Amino acid sequence: MARSLFILCIFMCYLNFDAQNLPLYVGTYTNGDSEGIYQLQFNTKTGELKNLKLAAEIENPSFITYSPDKQHIYAVSESLGGTVSAFKVQPSGSLQFLNKLSSNGTAPCHIATNQAGDKAVVSNYGGGSASIYTLSKDGRLLNTFQTFNFNTLDKISHAHSAQFLKDELFIADLGTNAVYQYILKNDKYVLETPNLVAMPGNPGPRHFAITKNGQYIYVINEYGGSVTSIKRTSSGFEQIDFDNTLDENYRGKNSCADIHLSKNEDYLYGSNRGENSIVVFSRNKRDGTLEKIQTVPVRGDWPRNFTLDPTGKFLLVANQNSNNISVFNIDSSSGKLTFLQSIKAPSPVCLLF
């Protein structure tokens, strides 16, 4: 009896240890030491990253995303002949290639899936277009559902990111300084709002974060070093706040990259390439406005992308030029960051839990 209890105890300890270790997939640029998409193990108790291994060989997987059930991963290949690929996640953590299609543009830089898991949208930075794809039940890319071209006679588009929200689709275009809103009508996405709010001064909207209820949208501007805060109203959208992402003493060049809300939506985080920092904002839930509370060095160079782990306790940063991933602890009471550790990784530019 005592032996059985001992074995059961060991087994339960193993389960608890395994449960606190999650896979982290890393998208990269392959013009250096990288060969494609990598996987690491992340400990949600300690913040430790370890066991770097190649999950799939693929050219320049600069952005990757899961299907809603996390059984499949989709990756763009950022190149002149842009493509998008589908993979099936294997029990070992490796990725089984399923198929790939043209991205219908050049230099695709972002991909997202809808909640139903039957559509994916790709943003083509070089081609200035966004393409929606139909996904099969087994995870394959079936066909191009719709393609939008945002280039005009006087403006060159650089579509940089897109997100589905129920029957809506939002697309940020750094080239035309616009965030477009589409709505699904009669099985097609139709342009509803050409630009959520005016973007004067060429700020370059790049990525954006949407609150869970869809009431607020926060846009990080690559050229402007700023965050534009937008509120949904009964008649459309309005700007409610505008905040600088840089420390007041910083005078060098900077290009903002990524933006994320904390799990409880009390805090907002953004990445600065140049200043090489993460900016932290406290968010007023009553009116959606922001207050800058911290700018913390990323302990690396060129933080293109970052993510929060599923527990909401840690923030991880992909430092492209210094070939490392930095891990920060998030203080639950203040939202502020404290550096924990760094691990080497080849040209990391996208992190996926």
Please describe what this structure looks like:
It is globular and about 50 Å long. It is mostly beta strands and 353 residues long. It has one helix spanning 2-19, and strands at residues 21-28, 36-43, 49-57, 63-66, 72-77, 83-89, 95-102, 108-113, 119-124, 129-135, 141-149, 159-165, 168-173, 178-185, 188-193, 205-210, 216-221, 226-233, 236-244, 255-261, 267-273, 277-283, 290-297, 303-308, 314-319, 324-330, 337-344, 348-352. It starts with a helix and ends with a strand. β13 (168-173) and β14 (178-185) form a beta hairpin.
- Please identify the structural class as seen in this structure: mainly beta
Q: Please compute the radius of gyration using only Cα atoms.
A: 20 Å
Q: Within the largest sheet, what's the order of strands?
A: 3-2-1-28
Helical segment count: 1
Q: Could you tell me how far the N terminus lies from the C terminus, measured between alpha carbons in angstroms?
A: 41 Å
Family: Belongs to the cycloisomerase 2 family.
Pfam family, one: Lactonase
Keywords: Carbohydrate metabolism, Glucose metabolism, Signal
InterPro entries: Cycloisomerase_2, Haem_d1_sf, Lactonase_7-beta_prop, WD40/YVTN_repeat-like_dom_sf
